[in-house]
Amino acid sequence: MSSSDSRPWPPPPLRIGDLVVDPPILQAPMAGFTNAAFRQVVRDYGGAGLLATEMVNARGFVWLDENTAEHPDRLWGVAEEARPLAVQIWDNDPDTMAKVGLRLAEEYQVSVVDINFGCPVRQVTQKAHSGSYLLREPERMFKIISQLVKACAPTPVTAKIRLGCTRDNVNCNEVARVVEEAGAAALTVHGRTAQDMFTGNADWDRISEIKSHLRNIPLIGNGDLDSAEKVVAAFKNYNVDGVMIARACLGRPWLFAQAAAALRGDPIPPDPTMQQQRECMLNHYRLVVDRFGEEKGTVLMRKYACCYAQGKRGARHFRSHVAKVTTRDDFYRVVDEHFPINAQVD
C-alpha cells in the first residue's frame, strides 16, 4: 500500500494522450452489458469520465465489413453518441487490429481505442488465443499495440491487462513496460490473474506496484470497486491515476455519480428510492426495445433486470419470474408484481 501524503487531493483529471478524463473514473467494457442503452443510462446519472463499449471482435468486424453486412451490434450507437467514448477491440493479429483501429479512429471518430489483453473467458483465450492469453506473449503484444498506435494516430490507444495468466506467472510489471514502450497512452490493470476469473479479491497492492515500472503513462486500477468509499480508498491508498468500475455498476448505474461526489468531497448522494430504481430499469428496457424490437429486446433485458434487483429482498423470487419473460406485457407485469419494493437484503 502506498502513502497518499504527497498526492494531490482531489485526484486531478486523467490524461490519455490529449484526452482529458474528468473525473478520473472510467466505466469498464463488459461483454453482453455495456451497450448503447446501458451507456445512456450511465450518462444520464453522470459521474463517469469515460464510457466504453462492449469488447468488439476485430476479426468479426472485418468479415462483416468485407461482406457488406451490418456492423456489429456492439457498435450500436457509437457513431452518434456523446464523447468521450472508448471502443475496446480484441484479436491476436496486428494487421487485423490495425485495420479495425483505423476505421474506428477515422470513420467512427472514437475518443480512445482500447485493446483487451485481460479477458479470461475460454472462448477468447484458448479458442482464439486472444485476451489474457496474450499476456504470455509480450512480443506479440508489442506488435499489436505499436501497429495500432500508428494506424490510429492521433487517437490514443490504451491497453487493459490482468496481473498475469496464472498466480505462478504474474508478469504485469514486464507487460506494463512493453505496453508503454509500444506507444500506448494508458494502462488499465484488473487486479486478478486470468486463472482467478472473478473469484477472490483484487490485489490492489500488485496494481499499485506497477506504477513504478511506468515512466509517463497513467495507471488505471480495476477490481472490486463497488462503493464510492472504495473508490476514494483506491486513490488515497494506492498509486493509481484513475479507476475503472465494472460489475458493480450493472445494477447501480448511479454509482459513478456517487463516486465522483465523494472525490470532490461532496456528500455522497443516497441510492435512488426503489421507485426511482424501478423507473430507471424501465427506461433502460425502453431503450433496448427501441433498438432490438420487443421480442429480442425483452429477452436481452432479462439479465439487466436481474442486476437491478441484485442484493435486494425478494431478488431471487423476481429473477425466477423475469428470466422467463418474452413480451413487453410479460415484462411490465413481472416488474409490477415482483420487483423488490425495498432495498433490504435478505
From TrEMBL:
Coiled coil: none annotated. Its cofactor is FMN. One of its GO terms (molecular function) is tRNA binding. Residues 27-340 form the DUS-like FMN-binding domain. This is tRNA-dihydrouridine synthase. FMN binds at P29, M30, A31, Q88, K160, H190, A246, R247. The keyword Transferase does not apply. It catalyses: a 5,6-dihydrouridine in tRNA + NAD(+) = a uridine in tRNA + NADH + H(+); a 5,6-dihydrouridine in tRNA + NADP(+) = a uridine in tRNA + NADPH + H(+). Transmembrane segments: none annotated. Belongs to the dus family. InterPro entries: Aldolase_TIM (IPR013785), DUS-like_FMN-bd (IPR035587), DUS_fam (IPR001269), DusB-like (IPR004652), tRNA-dHydroUridine_Synthase_C (IPR024036), tRNA_hU_synthase_CS (IPR018517). Catalyzes the synthesis of 5,6-dihydrouridine (D), a modified base found in the D-loop of most tRNAs, via the reduction of the C5-C6 double bond in target uridines.
